[in-house]
Amino acid sequence: MTLKISFSKVCRENMKRYLAVGSCLMFVCLMQILAFVIEIQNRLIDYQSITSRVEMLEMLQYAIEPSEIEIGAALVFGVAFAYAGFGFLHSKIQSDFYGALPVKRRTVYQMNGFSSLLIFFVPVLVLALGKGIVLGVVGYLTRSFVMLILKGIVYQMLVFLASWVTAVLVIALTGQWYVGLLAYGVVAVYMPLVIRNLIPTYSGKFFHTFSYAYEWENAFAYNCFSPVSLSFGLLSGTETGKYLVGIILWIGIVGIISYLLFQRRPAEAAGRAMTFEKFNPVIRFLIVIPMALYAGWFLSETSMQNSMIWHVIGIMIGVFLFHGLIETIFQSSIRAVFAHKKQLAATFLFSFGITAVFYFDLIGYDKWIPAKESVKSIEVTLDNMENRQDCFWGEKPDGVSDESVETILALVRDAVVTEDTENAVVYSNAVGAGALARDVSTVEVDYDENDEEHMIITMETAYHMKNGQVKRRKYQIDENKSMELLNQLYADEDFKDDYFSLYTADISKISRIEWDNIVEYETVKLSSQEKEEFIEIYRKELDALSYTEIRNSIPHSEFYVTCSEGFNPYWNENVGNMKDRYYIYPSFEKTIAYLEEHGVGVKAISDYEIREVRVTDYSKDYEESKTNVIEDPDIIARYKDQFVYTEIGGICMNSLSSNYSLEATCQTPVGDKTLYFWVDDATAEKMMLE
Q1: Given a cut of 50, is residue 432 above it in pLDDT?
Q2: Which of 111, 146, 177, 255 has the highest CB neighbour count under 10 A?
Q3: Which of 630, 687, 623, 631 lies closest to 660, judged by CA?
């Protein structure tokens, strides 16, 4: 009878802790409702000009979808509820008391789990009802929004359960509360942060052909081993299904493991750092080795010489430091710093062995070249190409094939044999239209700026293999050969599909077209059909230009297309209201005519009156720079056709010359305006003599 009364008392005490945590959660949910009210109010005020209900619903959707704050709160309170129910395992007195109760551990586990889930659900339901009431008051409570609210409830419950079972697992594995929290942190970040970042970090340091890609940041293979990554992955949009399955599997698998560990956990383990000490060596290896490798990399990168000596010293320091720290935690004694010397020696060997694999390239990473028969297609990016990945919203790139593959592989074979990245230095140069810029590398030994034999650029490739894999590499190739390749690629339809969004994107998703030449700006008013006509005309004129013509042409203006919604395959995320930029060259007569027919007065810089030009020569020391002021209209007229905007539409362009700058006073419809331009060195030198 006493034990039964005691158990009832324990249940009441537990419920007090649950209600205390639940009250904190309720306060957080009420604050979220308040923030939601403010967000909806702000959006309705900011978008008063929107008259279409459909557009307003699309705009409000972003405020209603499950948010990172909700996911983060579910993770935190999952840990809090787990400690509220199982915190007794870290107290010897309470652990002995629970052990003496005539209640099966299975009952305790189920009772705490059900109580946590029920109490967590109530504030989450209040939050959902609050959102629904607010939307109903403003008149936008639609069926789709109700489904979004229900999705938010499901996501929060799944995230809570994933965090809860993980916290119960680490509580069962540890005997002290702070060690349990540290263990939860390790489980949460180990795979997505420690291991996933370690591989590209070492690959980038030791492999000359390593090419970092976005896939590393969003690698599901690593994120699926962390409750935190799985939880936030639910908001990824495109891969929600993967993360949904992953988090359900995590709840099931980790839930079973945590239950079994709770069943077998010895009562006397309370107060010890780790419950099952036979796992200590494994845990130590898994933590110390990556930390030692990071320590070696950090010390090497910090030193001016960036040598392997400092890398080795860093690994040695890291092994001693983290091995001692882990042992101090395990044994709760500073004297344990040098315990388990054999395991310490083994840690050294493993750390140096992993480093040797990268340093000596024992896996042949840099020497690997795919056979043509195994390659389906190849994506190519070169330094003398404008980066359009950030504003891409067309179909997923799949690279070029056929003859272009053989050309690329031939360049790769040459690059792998002759590459000498250890002696390479990089400086900035500029070319052509400003639409295409380059970073030119040149060998440091016997360097001559005019010796094109030594000029190399970076080429990054993504091999789409026939077995479905995508392998990326980076090479240093001769610039002249890259020009030959670019001329060939630019004539390839597959390349243009991957490079320009307008070749594969859904034109109906274009919400706005804007023309801009820095001096003036106009919105192009076109119907849906006219937008398609305009894009078709522009694409045909763009097709008529070779890469060499684009490289050597000066665009006089540009236009933006804004997509209402789309998907960026490079960054693997949905995009909305993103601007995609395209240049208008003087030869685009049909494009210019179409714009003029629809009310846009397309003008080049030569169409404006320039009153004054200040040419500054920075070829010598900054203190010795000279400026020549040109005011003669006839002289200015001779040169202004060769001026290139340093920025178009707010996007800074690389210079044609790093030695000269031009500042011009231009007469515009709203008054004089100061503009900045670049010209090639030869033209600038002539202007300095005027």
Answers
A1: no
A2: 255
A3: 687
305's tokens = 């010489």
Query: Alpha-carbon distance 386 to 392, whole Å?
Result: 12
**607 or 541, which is more confident:** 541
β-bridge mates for residue 472, sequence order: 462
Instruction: Give yes or no for a contact between 644 and 656, defined as CB atoms under 8 angstroms apart.
Output: yes
Q: Which of 99-113, 344-358, 383-397, 639-653 has the lowest mean pLDDT?
A: 639-653
Q: Phi/psi class of residue 543: alpha, beta or left (left: φ > 0; alpha: ψ in -120 to 50)?
A: alpha
d(CA 94, CA 551): 76
Give the 3-state secondary structure of residue 583.
Answer: strand
d(CA 688, CA 690) in angstroms, rounded, equals 6
Question: What is the DSSP secondary-structure string of 362-403?
Answer: TT-TTT----GGGEEEEEEEETTS---STT--SSPP--B-TH
Task: Evaluate whether 347 touches 285 at the Cβ level (below 8 Å).
Answer: yes
Residue 227: predicted pLDDT: 93
Phi and psi angles of residue 527, each rounded to the nearest 5 degrees, phi first:
-75, 175
- Tokens, residue 123: 């504030």
Four-CA torsion 298, 300, 303, 305, nearest 10 degrees: -160
b/e map 450-486, b = 16+ CB within 10 Å: eeeebbbbbbbbbbbeeeeeeebbbbbbbbebbbebb
Q: Which two tokens stand for residue 314?
A: 């860093």
Which residues in 373-384 are b (16+ Cβ under 10 Å) and which e?
eebbbbbbbbbb
Closest CA to 538 of 587, 487, 486: 587
> To the nearest whole number, what is the mean pLDDT of the chain?
81
* Whole-number pLDDT of residue 21: 87
Q: Which two tokens stand for residue 604?
A: 């080049």
Q: How confident is the model at residue 10 (pLDDT cuts 50, 70, 90)?
A: low
CA distances from 478 to 452, 483, 552 (A): 9, 9, 19
Of 604, 396, 394, 398, the closest CA to residue 492 belongs to: 398
Helices (H), 49-142: 53-64, 68-86, 92-100, 105-138
pLDDT at 442: 30
**Distance, CA of 127 to chain centre:** 31
Q: Do 683 and 635 form a contact (C-beta atoms < 8 A)?
A: no
| Overall pTM > 0.70 | yes
The pLDDT of residue 422 is above 50: no
Per-residue three-class SS string for 15-58: HHHHHHHHHHHHHHHHHHHHHHHHHHHHHHHHCCCCCCHHHHHH
What pLDDT, in 10s, does the model give residues 245-254?
A: 999 999 999 9
pLDDT tens digits for range 239-294: 788 899 999 999 999 999 999 998 888 877 777 778 887 888 888 888 899 999 99
d(CA 662, CA 640): 11
| Mean pLDDT along residues 307-315 | 90
Q: Higher-confidence residue: 614 or 438?
A: 614
